[in-house]
Amino acid sequence: MARISNTPSNRPEVIQLLIDGVDRYNPDNVSILEEYLASQCTNRECDAMANLAILKLYQFNNHLINDQVVNNILVKALTTLPEPDFNLCLYMLSEQMANEEAVMRLVKLQDLLEQCRYADFWKTYESDDYFKELTAEVLGFEDSIRANIANAVSMSFQSIEVPNLSSYLNLKDAALSEFIKAQGWTESSNTVTIPVNKDNEAKTTVLVENIKFE
Amino acid sequence: MNYEEEIDIGAEVDLVVSAYPVEDDVLEEELLAADQTTQQYQEVQIPEVVKKFILYFHRNVLENNVNELHSIYEGSFNKLTEKFYAKESWPDPEAISPLVNDDQVFLTLYRELYYRHIYSRLTPTIEHRFHSYENYCDLFNYILNSEGPVNLELPNQWLWDIIDEFIYQFQSFSNYRNRLKNKTEEELALLRDNSQIWSCYSVLNVLYSLIQKSRITEQLLVSKNGGDMLEAAGEYGSRPLYKMLGYFSIVGLLRVHCLLGDFTLALKMMDNIELNKKQALFARVTACHVTTYYYVGFAYMMLRRYADAIKAFSHILVFINRTKQYHTRSYQHDQINKKADQMYALLAMCVTLCPTRLDENIHSQLREKYAEQSNKLSRPDEAIQVFEELFQFACPKFISPNGPNFDDPEVLNRAPFEPIQHYTKIFSSDVQHSILLPTLRSYLKLYSTMGNAKLASFLDIDPQQLRTLLMVAKIRSRQTKWVEGTLLEGELQSTSDLDFCLKEDMIHVSESKVGRRYGDWFLRNINKFQDILGGLELTANTA
């Protein structure tokens, strides 16, 4: 999961300089950032700060706005949940842009994901081809979403019934079993066991005050 | 996890105390004398007292007497404002120009005060706004584009106020520009033809130029990592005027980016300023200090890093509480109190979204001011409305970077775009996801294990919904928290003392308890005991 707080290790030097300096305000540089976004879409990475820089240029220069780019940025932000990237992008959009059909649809998807209503998310996503169109340019969209869902599940559950898991991941039978194995979980009868990690074990701890006498 | 951190602000309190200006007795006498001649005061004439003041002021500006200027600026100017100009503007700059031999530099500075006074006590007209902008351009042009650094020195408080007011007028103009409904034809024409006045780019340009000219970034790096300060500062940066303007511009940018909705960039601006450093430069001017923490806290809140936001707000609120007695006499008293109230509101929201132990004083103040709202925030049916109210009260006055599109023939009929509504909507829908969490927590606290179906019936939702709610709770309890490095960095940590896991249909809850804290109790009782002993000895001696 890419975090805004950590710089992606493969951010090119030229982008780093662009973001750090005043060149980021130069409207002529928008194409460099847009190309970088396109490469993020194909190689499945996410550089939130660079994408926010594009939105900032759009904010100041309305004539540069490219709807497709905005959509891709938002879709990319969906893949990094639970990071707040999606909301940060929304704050940078003007009201007009935010009321576009595409954006509102993506907000609906985000809403479902944030509420962990994964079953509903897949239902909505599959119900309309429009969504598949929106996310077409971002390769590996579904995989990233599944990875996030798997993360949420492994944080909360030590064991979960197969039907529930299947609805969360929108995978069945063979595909589901493969996924389970890939995550390092074990399947037996009708439940999947998730190995204990630091998030899903409920341990009582007592915090004791540490007073030293000197 | 939630140790109360020592908020050590001793050094910062000292700065406030030492900066308090000295009373100006001479002015007091003159004002008394002026009282006796008020019958002769005519509207057109400038009172003698004011004339003398302007001459005295001018002389000190020429001589770069920073200490005198500080007391003139903080004390005398405000007293004269109260006395003569509480409801009208100061004398026109043209009127006082002969008094100061047409000194353009002084007049530019005077105009800065003149317009600032209009903004705060009266309502500025569009001409005032335009002229004030041009005056700022003159001032910054003089500072940045003269041949070589200018030989001017002003008190830090004034330098901060210049930057602060500059951004404030920018914000005020953006809001003014958006509301087209009740404007005259003339005003609309002026707005349409002068889109470069108070434009986003020009404001940002000023702030970035001040930073570059003063090489404040290099200076901050040197003071952090060592090196040759003089070399880093360069010709301009080694002069206090430039250095402080550059420094205040960084805080200025933090503010502007928040106003425009770019919270990550706002925090990035503070990359080279260490917040926890003793004797940090921003602590020299209280208003700057408060502003910095307010915007840092707010940006963290929008990034959903509630734990970090709480820390920032707590720090500055403790500071404001401890230095209360010094603020009552400064004219910024009202401003600082208002910001404090806003921060309490934000704190109330953050604490609901991320329950944390607060410092005792802060907690009691919070309960005093926002008891009712805090309670409502935990109740699912009333919470959203209170969140929105508090958010709108406490948030900065957001602006949109561009004015209305005058090419659009319908522009006069459209409702103005209010950024604050847009942000409230996003914030509110985000908060919506956490609405049931306080109730869930209260139930989880009661049990160590519970069946999914049973808890679902308590909460009046079905088991599937409960499972999703539990996942939300789990995810929300893990936040990025600042550990070290720049403000944007951080590690994912748990911020809740309540933890749980699901084994198929059973929920296992664990709570991290804080062991009995005996240190504080012992200290307090030891002190009490010593007092009693002291009292006993006293009575023994006198008996």
From TrEMBL, chain A:
Gene3D superfamilies: ARM repeat, domain 1, Winged helix-like DNA-binding domain superfamily/Winged helix DNA-binding domain. Residues 46-210 form the PCI domain. One of its GO terms (molecular function) is translation initiation factor activity. It holds the Pfam family CSN8_PSD8_EIF3K. The keyword GTP-binding does not apply. Signal peptide: none annotated. InterPro entries: ARM-type_fold (IPR016024), CSN8_PSD8_EIF3K (IPR033464), eIF3k (IPR009374), PCI_dom (IPR000717), Transl_init_fac_sub12_N_euk (IPR016020), WH-like_DNA-bd_sf (IPR036388), WH_DNA-bd_sf (IPR036390). Keywords: Cytoplasm, Initiation factor, Protein biosynthesis. GO terms for biological process: regulation of translational initiation. One of its GO terms (cellular component) is eukaryotic translation initiation factor 3 complex. It comes from the Eukaryota. This is PCI domain-containing protein.
Automatic annotation (TrEMBL), chain B:
Keywords: Cytoplasm, Initiation factor, Membrane, Protein biosynthesis, Transmembrane, Transmembrane helix. The keyword Glycosyltransferase does not apply. GO terms for molecular function: translation initiation factor activity. GO terms for biological process: formation of cytoplasmic translation initiation complex. One of its GO terms (cellular component) is eukaryotic translation initiation factor 3 complex. It is found in: Cytoplasm. Its main location: cytoplasm. Belongs to the eIF-3 subunit L family. This is Eukaryotic translation initiation factor 3 subunit L. The lineage of its organism: Eukaryota, Fungi, Fungi incertae sedis, Mucoromycota, Mortierellomycotina.
